[in-house]
From TrEMBL, chain A:
Top-rank taxon, per record: Bacteria
HAMAP family given in the database record: FabH
Pathways per UniProt: Lipid metabolism; fatty acid biosynthesis
Gene: fabH
Keyword Protease: no
Beta-ketoacyl-[acyl-carrier-protein] synthase III N-terminal domain ranges (all copies): 116-193
Descriptive protein name: Beta-ketoacyl-[acyl-carrier-protein] synthase III
Domain remarks: The last Arg residue of the ACP-binding site is essential for the weak association between ACP/AcpP and FabH.
Annotated active site: C122, H257, N288
Family per similarity comment: Belongs to the thiolase-like superfamily. FabH family.
GO biological process: fatty acid biosynthetic process; secondary metabolite biosynthetic process
TrEMBL record, chain B:
Organism: Streptomyces mesophilus
Upper classification of the organism: Bacteria, Bacillati, Actinomycetota, Actinomycetes, Kitasatosporales
Top-level taxon of the source organism: Bacteria
Matching InterPro entries: ACP, ACP-like_sf, EAL_dom, PP-bd_ACP
Keyword Iron: no
Protein name: Acyl carrier protein
């Protein structure tokens, strides 16, 4: 047997930079009310959402990703030629092959970076972050670009009262690179496929017949998801804190997936987070952007000064699958 | 030991107070969660989970929609606690 030389990675990994892109068009609740019987007051009280962004034809999954990534790479103090791998998490890029990550890697100007897409719904950012950390520590890439991007407006049934107001579009990206100290804690993640019916696409592409069906959209059992998100995910969030050896008192920032303000509020209560913890509430003006929501919220907290570089943050994503991923990170 | 109906109502009153800020004395058997007590459908999920923990019962989502009043919830818990 020949001896195989191992790869040489970094001792640890960290998030080095973050960037976001929000589509130009801002859609207030009044527009949603054109297609469903509801009210601004109901939408705000049940979801906390006042406005969301919807992408134009030009604001494609690739175009939004490139904008967000450019900012993240600059924020990390790097240039695109240093990026060794690009991971894109999305459920709303409608051309399965080739992976959109390859086009993004090329247009950004990377040097033939490894590039691939993953599908993990609203936990996609945490899944991709976990892969990126592993790749940096294992040594296959020095710098990994992680992108969460969605055009959920394409997968929204505007006549469905239960979902028409929830979703938005956008892209968020981070660069993960080497570190001498641990700045991304252990990931607590998993899937509960026995609950796959609670959030799903209405019709499979292979069954879709425009004469019979509405265009495929995301549908969900709202209260079952709410219950799971608040109470089961609070346990997962606590496990991620424990795994990182961090108590809620040590925490500066909490960035949960931006699904619904009511979920965020209940989680904060269930977790008994102290007053000093800054909580991301980007949902109000962004809606639920699935895989993009955590990096978008992270970018905004840093841009507004509500959070600062070096802060300790708990991030948790959860959604269709059902899947989830949580970890403690140091903000870039 | 199983709770009595009185204890259950007192417990529900504390839970509703905690979640919706309604004074405990307003939480009476005939009161509707949504119409009288400012507990909307999502707060109701929180009430149910808190009640499950407190009274050691399971209240599946499908049964939650039948619990319109405090009395409905108290009878349900009385019947299903062990
Ligand atoms: C979607 C969500 C806001 C809906 O709230 P809900 O309380 O479950 O809504 P329900 O369908 O049970 O309806 C409750 C009441 O509001 C009414 N209603 C429903 N949709 C409405 C709307 N858009 N506008 C006004 N009223 C509405 C219903 O008719 C019902 O009224 P009734 O009690 O008089 O019959 C909520 O379930 C939710 O956000 N769940 C989590 C979903 C999520 O975030 N998923 C993504 C995770 S990644």
């Amino acid at each position: 047997m020949s001896k195989i030389k191992p790869s040489k990675g970094a001792p640890y990994a960290k998030i080095m930079g973050v960037g976001g892109y929000r589509p130009t068009r801002v859609v207030p609740n009044e527009v949603i009310l054109e297609t469903i019987d509801s009210s601004d007051e109901w939408i705000r009280s049940r979801s906390g959402i006042a406005t969301r962004h919807w992408a134009s034809d030009q604001e494609t999954v690739a175009a939004m990703s490139i904008e967000a990534s450019g900012k993240a790479i600059a924020d990390a103090g790097l240039t695109a030629d240093k990026i060794g791998a690009v991971i894109v998490s999305t459920v709303s890029h409608f051309k399965q092959t080739p992976a959109v990550a390859t086009e993004i890697a090329d247009k950004l100007g990377t040097r033939k970076a490894a590039a691939f897409d993953i599908s993990a719904g609203c936990a996609g950012f945490g899944y991709a972050l976990t892969l990126a950390k592993g790749m940096v520590v294992e040594g296959s890439s020095e710098y990994v670009l992680v992108i969460g991007v969605e055009r959920l407006s394409d997968l929204t049934d505007l006549e469905d009262r239960a979902t028409a107001f929830l979703f938005g579009d956008g892209a968020g990206a981070v660069v993960v690179g080497p570190s001498d100290e641990p700045h991304i804690g252990p990931t607590v993640w998993g899937s509960e496929g026995d609950k796959s019916e609670t959030i799903k696409q209405t019709v499979a592409w292979t069954e879709y017949d425009s004469a019979v069906h509405k265009f495929p959209a995301i549908t969900q059992e709202g209260q079952a998801v709410f219950r799971w998100a608040v109470f089961e995910m609070a346990k997962v969030a606590q496990q991620a804190l424990d795994a990182a050896g961090i108590s809620a008192d040590d925490l500066d920032v909490f960035i949960p997936h931006q699904a619904n303000m009511r979920i965020i509020d209940s989680m904060v209560k269930t977790l008994k987070l102290p007053e000093h913890v800054t909580v991301a509430r980007d949902i109000e003006t962004t809606g639920n952007t699935s895989a993009a929501s955590i990096p978008l919220a992270m970018e905004r907290l840093l841009a507004t000064g509500e959070a600062k570089s070096g802060d300790t943050a708990l991030v948790i994503g959860f959604g269709a699958g059902l899947v989830y991923a949580a970890s403690v990170v140091t903000l870039p | 030991m199983a709770a009595t109906q009185e204890e259950i109502v007192a417990g529900l009153a504390e839970i509703v107070n905690e979640i919706a800020g309604i004074p405990v004395e307003d939480v009476q058997l005939d009161k509707s969660f949504t119409d009288d007590l400012d507990v909307d459908s999502l707060s109701m999920v929180e009430v149910v989970v808190a009640a499950e923990e407190r009274f050691d019962v399971k209240i599946p989502d499908d049964d939650v929609k039948n619990l319109k009043t405090v009395g409905d919830a108290a009878s349900y818990i009385l019947k299903h606690q062990d």
